[in-house]
Design goal:
Chains A, B: Pfam families: Mo-co_dimer (PF03404), Oxidored_molyb (PF00174). The structure is a homodimer. By secondary structure, chain A is mostly beta strands. Chain A has a domain of about 110 residues: Immunoglobulin-like, CATH 2.60.40.650.
Chain lengths: ~400, ~400
């Protein structure tokens, strides 16, 4: 990928209106069109200036809309729904929502009202789509061409999943997966397994998973999975099942398509299969959010965000010369815990000219962002620092 | 104040429609009317369900709208403006906003664009009006009858004030006050000193004050003082000067009315004067946010918020019997630093009956909430735990 890669270029190169129309049908998003798309009704409360509307179910936060105040507001937070959300009636009486538990000693359904009396915790997490950064792959990838904005850092309140499981006598033995099912309505006449949002995560996720009913201090909006969402801190977005209606401890991963063949790391051109790595724990990542195009010569503020994914981020470095030399960039503000991101700011004196700014984060276990991405068919998990850089002109 | 005090009762007792009309003129707010008032245009992006509209310039967050996710969203945050906000044109080109510095070695005006290149920090603070809790005083107080909702916990990004002062050669000696002026337009024909929002804080506030341009990850909204606001962590809201256009180090406190006689702790019936305590550092405080009226017998979740004010909060206790006996209530979620509030949750088993729930916080220096308020003419600084309790029925 060249130093001057612009994710919009791919669409521009497609050229004709016919090509644009066909890419839309494929789920690709010519940003020149997207910029003019209005917010879908169910998220009409979001901030249009901060978002790129790829489709009704895929909205990306603009790169420079991310600030340094750590949290991403509900109004700026990206949307990625695998299916259209259920009707608003499900949040009319939030406490009446029920989730069924299976694979526990005393299986039963439990209402959100009762869940709220079992325990409460609050955790900050980076919520990130597996395909964030997909636009930077060289090969043609199907799926939304996210650059950096299928990610945000938010605060959730809910009950630890372990607390609920304990209240049901604990999970049965030898069931190594937690399999959760979303409450989306499935279109009739199609194989449910091909559509249902049902995800399995390894049992180790029980350490940090919560059932969340609040987002950034507000009742969890329907668009983000309200009234109740499974949140697995440190895991990619797809594992955070919205409108969760069932949580089961299972011997095997679900055979739903979204798990069995979807969200797998596989060689380009190869089909998805259960023996390929699943998009579970996130990797260490960072990117610069400002400046993106140009800045005045003199003191220049370079800012961005860095996170460790499944492990806490330790530090981040910035390069002004495309990765030849690096300097530490300080974090600003309090740490919101191991699963949050940390804004960083580096202020430097720059003379007029062209610069390639890149950032590289490391987690507390010494994992650093690689220079290049792991190439894979669907364009998942891109954390290569080179592609995430920005070329700016100092004038 | 009785155990069953309801801040709405005062208005209800006033009885007639004439009385209601007259209290409106006085700035009192019959909540039964307020509940039907629409959001003023300049804050039409806020969440109406979460707010009580006392007037166009005073909006209160409903007590049970405060959740456990620590941050108060911009959409839920209270509004208290001493004057109507300036026109939206001042946020059209945010970086062009200038603030004049005086009382420094090299006094000059500096643009927001330049401020952003001097340094960046992020701090969480409780933003609270001096009159929060005014509704709980026994004597008649003029001013908005806030109960608990003239407060929120938010994240600010900006430059430390000290960094800016250092860049101007430091402050001149023997100038013990920082005096800041807001950019509101003053109505013609009236004495500017009687209206201008100009506040002096002691020089010690330089340790933590920032000039903020971002609120909860978004560009600081005009309604909350954008494009630039002086934020003095740990200080009452009035000191956090909106649309700040001048910061001066001064030998004396300003003689503007809002400082000289306003926002002073004074005996009931006495006028305001510069020798009375000014509303600077906040005191330790807490209140329960849920439940407020009733809950089902069995496991009941009691939640609230606690903060130390100018010092970090250390712990909070809850009483189920109006203060006869107490038990520790655990905080939930990460600490966002000494100036933030901490949500607490206590889950208890309750039998049917009537309960008086109260909470009492202490800061790290051992200051605890008093049982009663310090009675004062204008109803400022109420942190007495008794009045902040709630009477609930367990059914």
């Amino acid at each position: 990928m060249s130093d001057n890669f612009d994710p919009r270029r791919r669409q521009v190169l497609l050229g004709s209106a016919v090509a644009l129309a066909s890419t839309s049908l494929l789920g690709l998003s010519p940003l020149s069109l997207a910029a003019d798309m209005a917010l879908p009704d169910y998220v009409n409360w979001k901030t249009p200036e901060a978002l790129i509307v790829h489709s009704a179910n895929t909205l990306e936060t603009k790169r420079d809309a991310i600030g340094t105040s750590i949290v991403t507001s509900n109004e700026q937070l990206f949307i990625r729904n695998n299916l259209p959300p259920p009707p608003p009636s499900i949040v009319a009486d939030r406490d009446a929502w029920t989730v069924a538990f299976k694979g526990v000693k005393n299986p039963r359904s439990i209402s959100l009202g009762e869940l709220k009396t079992l325990g409460v915790t609050t955790v900050a997490t980076v919520l990130q789509c597996s395909g964030n950064g997909r636009a930077f792959f060289d090969h043609e990838t199907s799926g939304t061409q996210w650059a950096t904005g299928a990610a945000g850092c938010v605060l959730w309140s809910g009950v630890p999943l372990k607390t609920v499981v304990d209240a049901m006598g604990g999970s049965l033995g030898d069931l190594p997966y937690i399999t959760s099912t979303g409450g989306e309505e499935l279109p009739a006449g199609l194989d449910p397994k091909s559509l249902v949002v049902e995800r399995s995560v390894p049992l180790r996720a029980l350490d940090q998973a919560i059932l969340a009913w609040e987002l950034n201090g507000e009742p969890l909006p329907l668009a983000h999975g309200g009234p109740l969402r499974l949140v697995v801190p440190g895991y990619y977005g797809v594992n955070n099942v919205k409108y969760v209606k069932q949580v089961a401890f299972t011997a095997e991963q679900t055979d739903a398509k979204i798990q069995a063949s979807g969200y797998r790391i596989r060689p380009v051109g190869q089909g998805g299969a259960p023996d390929q790595p699943s998009m579970w724990e996130m990797n260490v990542k960072s990117w610069i959010t400002q400046p993106l195009e140009q800045a005045k010569a003199g003191r220049v503020r370079i800012q961005g965000v860095a996170f460790g994914g499944a492990k806490e981020v330790k530090n981040v470095e910035v390069s002004l010369d495309g990765g030849k030399s690096w300097q530490a960039a300080p974090f600003v503000g309090p740490s919101l815990g191991p699963y949050a991101w940390r804004p960083f700011v580096l202020i430097v004196d720059l003379k007029p000219g062209d610069y390639r700014l890149v950032s590289r984060a490391s987690d507390v276990e010494g994992n650093a962002q690689p220079e290049e991405e792991l190439v894979n068919e669907r364009g998942y998990g891109h954390n290569g620092w080179r592609d995430h850089g920005v070329s700016i002109a100092i004038v």
